[in-house]
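Exercise 7. Predict the joint structure of the components listed below.
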Amino acid sequence: MRDRISPARRPGYSVDTVLLTPVGRHLAVLLVRAPEGSGERWVVPWGLPKAHDAALSDTGARIARSALATAPSWMHQVGAFSDGRRHPSDADLTIGFVGTVPLGAHVAPGEDSAWFPIIELPPLSPRQRAIIDSSVALLRVKADSAPVAFRLLPSTFTLSDLQRVYEMLLGQRLHKASFRRALQAATLVEPTEEWRSEGRGRPAQLFKYAPRRRRRARRGLRFDQVHAW
Amino acid sequence: MRDRISPARRPGYSVDTVLLTPVGRHLAVLLVRAPEGSGERWVVPWGLPKAHDAALSDTGARIARSALATAPSWMHQVGAFSDGRRHPSDADLTIGFVGTVPLGAHVAPGEDSAWFPIIELPPLSPRQRAIIDSSVALLRVKADSAPVAFRLLPSTFTLSDLQRVYEMLLGQRLHKASFRRALQAATLVEPTEEWRSEGRGRPAQLFKYAPRRRRRARRGLRFDQVHAW
DNA sequence: TCAATAGTGTCTGTTAGACATTATGGA
DNA sequence: TCCATAATGTCTAACAGACACTATTGA
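Solution:
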């Protein structure tokens, strides 16, 4: 029993955008306040396709820009979702997108939106919850196949910033010396002339993303990870 | 009510199933003959959702079973596709699924369907081509995070079979001794009492998939892979 | 001065890849 | 017999992780 809206008027599909940015040691997702009496108090920014959206990604980008007042640094489709009963839209089908916002680049969200660490999400509709989970999983998968980590950082950053981003993407702490050695070997970053001092401790040199050469194939073979499907 | 497609309205979305099985040293995809005059001669098995499909995956599973005359050993959604002009259906939107068929488990396809190695695909609609490419990419990503490789093999197999499957998923040749050492460490397989002789050479022992314990976290960190988005 | 963070050098156990060797069948 | 494939043992260079140490700031 879905909402009593004339079936002919029911939208074909809706689009959700899961926007992620680093906050502290965790990823955070942008949620917007839901209208009163809609079941949940917070929802993922969503919308419906419009005639001038040539591609699916145009719809996602439009919704993201509207929620952020700026464009995300990266977006990717997560998939189509139909299970789970409630969704803010009445659509049977929702296409999910994940987007990134660089560290510190988000304007302070107003009263109608807020960044929630993914380990402390408020109650959400089952479908939106599933889309968020898939979005984080996708970002984590992309972390070691493409430098999506740098989309979560501004154009210059400290190596400690970068390590924290990798740690939140990989979900585990990393060894500092090993991290920097691997980074050196990968020639992904270049130092700048700038330094940044934050509170106590020695100031850190700022680096920029500057991939120089293709890495050679990974050494070896792994039968790792969970066995779950 | 979704199955009642009024003639005036185009269907909301179609579902494509990309079914993959090992053939020789490459993955092959099942294609079915297209009706005369439809633009292409071969198409990926596809269909439209029906009322009794509770979830998206039900539609995909139904289409796959119909094309195979059996159920695939594994299925996963690939995503939603809308770009590319032509598609066998008239739908603006296509949800793609990828499925696996174990080595040798496919019945000889009749005149109306055939397995094509993914390196020698016939002309296809742009959208279906994109869905195939994404399906293969998804399977390759899953190869080292879950033992999807075993879904491409029958219940017992030789270690050379397994290595060939990993090679087609990873897209590179592997070192035999290293492969077996890593496999041993992963405790993913157990030997059976059976042996199989194929042509010349020493007969190979048959193994079965029997994961015994969780692997410990991967050692180290990689900044590998391509930098392309 | 102490505390905190940045950054680097060295050592060691692990291991991926190379190579060699034996085993066992078919042609 | 020759050849092809299976299966395994050994060696070595590479390297992840541990540890220690210096450097440089703010409190």
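Discussion. The domain at 148-225 of chain A is CATH 1.10.10.10 (Arc Repressor Mutant, subunit A).
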